[in-house]
Every structure is written in C-alpha cells, then in structure tokens.
Amino acid sequence: MAGTTVADGGLVEQAFAAAAQRLGVEPGSVEHAEQLAHVRATMGESKISVFRHLFGVEDKAQQANTAFEEAYGKLVDGGLIAPIPGAREAIEELKAEGRTVVLSTGFARPTQDAILDALGWQDLADLTLCPADAGGRGRPYPDMILAAFLRTGAVDGVHDLVVAGDTSYDMLSGARSGAGLVAGVLTGAHDTARLEQHGATHVLGSVAELPGLIARTEA
C-alpha cells in the first residue's frame, strides 16, 4: 500500500525514528544511521521482521514494532497520508472490468485498518491482507500473494496473478509466487534498476497505469 497506492511522505522513516529512540537509539548517531539504511533497503518487508533483524532479541523487537505502529498510527490520524494520484480510480476501473483487487501491506492489521479508514477505502478492495493474515512471514516471501490467490479463487492459476508494488521485496514476492505480471511502480522506495533486478516484468510511472498495462498484455 504505502508507496504504491498510498503516499505517506516518508512517514515510515519518521515512525522508525520514534521506535528506535524508545529503545535508546538516538537520532543522529552512527547506530541510528545504520539502522535507517537497513529500513530503507528493506522497504516492503514486514516491520516485525525488520525489527528482529535490527534488535535481535524478540522482546526488543516487539517493543520497537509496537512503538513504530503507535507512531505511524498517530501520523495517519493526523491526516499525513493521501492516495497516490489515480490509485483509487485504477482500482475501481479494474473492479468494473470484473477483476478482483487485493491490497496488502507489511504493516500490522491495526495500522492497515487505520490507513484504510483515513482514506475511506474500507470497502474499496475485495480483500486486504497483512503478514499475520498469511502466516506472519510477509515479504519477500510470496505468502500474502498466494493467500490472496487461495482466498479469492479469482483466477485459475498463479500465472494469471498480477502483482504491483514499489519495492524490491514486492518484486521478489511477486516473482516467487509465479505471477505472470509483476509491475514495479516509481512512486515509492526503489528505482527502475532495482525493481527490474528483483523480478519486475514491467516498470510503470504509477499504479494508475496498471489497468492499461493489463489490457495491453491480454491483447
């Protein structure tokens, strides 16, 4: 969602800074810079997995994740997110064509719901998924994509799946799922080279271009 259908203006990094500081990592320190670099490199991964890598001990990882979700939720409640231009229209166009649309995220369910509520998107997609809904691993594993495939029953095989995202981990999860079309978008974390390196079959300016890409591919 963030970076693909939702513009959050760098709120992930702001929320991370709040979480790290709660665990004693001061902004401006070498440790903070190293951790922030890892956060940027792993955009799209489930946040608890990121914190497990950064802090090692499960208790600290859970503390950091809770602090992150609280901080991000407050920023969302403050009106600091917006739809990527054309994202809602693209989803509505795809649904009008009879396609099934699933929104997934690396955030926990409370944060995902806060984003959906803030945008008025509670009923926009056919299904919404977070890592906990698909076994907890999140990206770059294909679990959420395959959960969407199994739960919706919308297509006959994984090759009929279309995956779109703004991070290398989105591309990896799409490629690993067997999706026939894995589209990177340039409205978020990573550039064309990185998206293609990790499995993008196409790179778009934004998700607003996705219905057109699907139509051309089918033609």
From TrEMBL:
Organism per entry: Streptomyces finlayi
Keyword Hydrolase appears in the UniProt entry: yes
SUPFAM superfamilies on file: HAD-like
UniProt-recorded Gene Ontology molecular function terms: phosphoglycolate phosphatase activity
InterPro entries linked to this entry: HAD-like_hydrolase_sf, HAD-like_sf, HAD_sf
GO terms, biological process: DNA repair
Pfam families, sorted: Hydrolase
Keywords, sorted A to Z: Hydrolase
Name listed for the protein in its UniProt record: HAD hydrolase-like protein
GO cellular component term, pick one: cytosol
